Amino acid sequence: MAIRQIIGGLLSDRYPPEKHKFKSALVLIHGVWAGSWVWESWATHFANLGWDCSAINLRGRTGDLPLRDLKRVGFEQCATDVAAVLESFSAPPVVLAMDLACLLALKASEQAKAAGLILVAPASPRNLSDPNLRARRLLRLKYSPLMFLRRPIRIDANDFRDYFFYPLPADLWPRAYARTVPESPLLVREFLLPRTVVNPTSLGCPSLIVAGAADTIQPPGGARKLAEFLGSDYKEYDGQGHWLIESDGEAIVRDIHRWTIQQLGERILLAEIP
After folding, report:
1. Which residue(s) pair with 98 in the sheet?
2. C-alpha angle 181/124/194, rounded to 5°?
3. What is the CATH number of the domain that holds 236?
4. In this predicted model, what pLDDT tens digit does every residue of 124-156 receive, in sequence order?
5. Which of 106, 165, 192, 239 could connect to 173 by a Cys-Cys bridge, CB 3.0–4.6 Å?
6. What is the pTM of this model?
């Protein structure tokens, strides 16, 4: 069961393990139109493996900001918030992020130390992004009026089903969509047409990119290109789309867990894992 608490100034859901096995906590950062709740299944699996997990909420997720203020929440502000979260731990945490939050994690790690970065279905920075990808182009055309008017944007149900949730079973997407929230137009724009530039030489920790072979928002070619650019390890899953956190969760979590142990080993272990 999650414990609601404030970490680094952000409301978070903490999933403590029955027995702590790691010096580093695991910080989970949601993507656009989402909140800490998207990590419920994965965080539970990680906690069962001995990780002390904290799934944070970016600004505006839980009614902490009225819509008139949500529209002003920008990327740099969120990156600073994430850096404050990382700095609040006694030991550098391992960070697990999805889509736009992958860019936030990369920028935050320039300000604060992370033990490792796991980037799931990552958004590409400006220096690697392909603005002509069909899914992004269509979404950008559809939501550009709201972005121009600086109005909070909630993704359309059909767009969520066709681009984010595909190819997961159709009977699962309505529940997931019901939990989406209005998003800052500045963050939506950064997701669809990024301005952020990432310097690979500033990445001071091991990193892993996890991608779905059927992802239309960030096709595997783009994810592999990002992995090469950052010098990251790369893991791709057949039959998986952008919303990787909803499918085969336990198997993917175990792969991420195994990679983290192999890469960080004694630097994060409190006790030997059988």
Report:
1. 120
2. 65
3. 3.40.50.1820
4. 999 888 877 889 899 999 999 999 999 999 999
5. 165
6. 0.94
